[in-house]
């Protein structure tokens, strides 16, 4: 119907209006922002991505660069990090950073500001699952719990703190964090991981309450399972002997949305939207990328023969 409307409009409409209808009907975002139409939505922006050496962070680094950003990968993996940065080309470089150590987060932010004069986008994405065993909270090792919290929560808070330190004075910036569907529904991961991911939307809202008064936005993304090195190695523990591909296949079949599975590129595109000026009025938001997984639960009705 839109196509026939657009065809009809070609006969009468002014050129500018025809272009807008055409971009709407082809689903390329339209939106009005020149950067969006050209697919270069982050031109001139400088982005720091923690955990950028692998998985979702790496895919987001790629997406940001495709859209014109300069990307700094901050990762604890000093072997993989520089290799990934090199593979991403001249718009990427690596800084070593353990997000559990606040001084290293501060240094990474300062290094970016020294080199580029600013930090536009801070993506606090680094995270770990922590131990899968023991499964019971009654056996929880609190030292292991602290380790997960130090990276997944304290590391994110440190990222927000030091990004805010350089963004507040210029009243501009976009901060992103990675939560998970494990931060929406319990029982999907080990206790420390679940607890840590529940914290993220809360601390995003807490920070948004202050930062919005200064023109700085902060949002988080909650993805469904995606076969990255992290999730594959976690799930592989339940399936000894399976190949990486087989485990990835299991993860890809966990979703609910027919005809699709959650990919790292889906998170990268969500991050691109939230980081870009297209989301200029979006803050304190949790963008759930889960194909509907967390929006319903079926009632477990007994079958006829189970009813007594
Ligand atoms: N893959 C999934 O299914 C999934 C789903 C929902 C949320 N997440 C979240 O996405 C984020 C990225 O996970 P991923 O799946 O891409 O995993 P990944 O293991 O592929 O990548 C994580 C990266 O973080 C780095 N890292 C780990 N600890 C660090 C630290 N202390 N300091 C700095 N860097 C550190 C690793 O070296 C690695 O490069 C995590 O926060 C994770 O909880 C993942």
UniProtKB/TrEMBL annotation:
Q: Which UniProt keywords apply?
A: Oxidoreductase
Q: Name one Pfam family in it.
A: adh_short_C2
Domain Ketoreductase stretches? 45-203
Q: Which molecular function terms from Gene Ontology are attached?
A: oxidoreductase activity
Q: Which Gene3D superfamilies match?
A: NAD(P)-binding Rossmann-like Domain
Kindly give the SMART domains that the UniProt entry links to this protein: PKS_KR
Q: Which InterPro entries does the entry link to?
A: KR_dom (IPR057326), NAD(P)-bd_dom_sf (IPR036291), SDR_fam (IPR002347)
State the superkingdom.
Eukaryota
Listed PANTHER family: 3-OXOACYL-(ACYL-CARRIER-PROTEIN) REDUCTASE (AFU_ORTHOLOGUE AFUA_6G11210), ALCOHOL DEHYDROGENASE-LIKE PROTEIN
Task: Write out the similarity annotation.
Answer: Belongs to the short-chain dehydrogenases/reductases (SDR) family.
The protein depicted here goes by the name Zerumbone synthase-like isoform X1
To which species is this protein native?
Rhodamnia argentea
Cite the source lineage: Eukaryota, Viridiplantae, Streptophyta, Embryophyta, Tracheophyta
């Amino acid at each position: 119907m839109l196509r026939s409307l657009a065809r009809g409009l070609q006969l009468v409409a002014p050129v500018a209006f025809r272009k807008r209808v055409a971009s709407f009907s082809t689903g390329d975002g339209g939106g009005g922002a020149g950067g969006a139409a050209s697919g270069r939505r982050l031109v001139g922006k400088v982005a720091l991505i923690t955990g950028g050496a692998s998985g979702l962070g790496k895919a987001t680094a790629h997406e940001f660069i495709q859209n014109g950003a300069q990307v700094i990968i901050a990762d604890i993996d000093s072997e993989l990090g520089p290799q990934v940065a090199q593979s991403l080309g001249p718009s990427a470089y690596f800084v070593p950073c353990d997000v559990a150590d606040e001084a290293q987060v501060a240094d990474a932010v300062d290094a970016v500001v020294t080199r580029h004069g600013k930090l536009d986008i801070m993506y606090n994405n680094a995270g770990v699952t922590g131990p899968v065993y023991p499964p019971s909270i009654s056996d929880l090792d609190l030292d292991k719990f602290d380790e997960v919290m130090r990276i997944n929560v304290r590391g994110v808070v440190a990222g927000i703190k030091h990004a805010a330190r350089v963004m507040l004075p210029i009243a501009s910036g976009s901060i992103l964090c990675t939560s998970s569907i494990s931060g929406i529904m319990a029982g999907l991961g080990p206790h420390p991981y679940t607890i840590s991911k529940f914290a993220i939307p809360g601390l995003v809202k807490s920070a948004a309450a202050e930062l919005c008064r200064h023109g700085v936005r902060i949002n988080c993304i909650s993805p469904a399972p995606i076969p990255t090195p992290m999730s594959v190695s976690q799930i592989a523990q339940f399936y000894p002997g399976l190949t990486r591909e087989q485990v990835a296949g299991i993860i890809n079949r966990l979703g609910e949305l027919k005809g699709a599975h959650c990919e790292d590129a889906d998170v990268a595109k969500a991050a691109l939207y939230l980081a870009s000026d297209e989301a200029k009025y979006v803050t304190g938001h949790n963008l759930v990328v889960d194909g509907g997984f967390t929006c319903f639960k079926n009632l477990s009705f007994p079958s006829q023969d189970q009813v007594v």
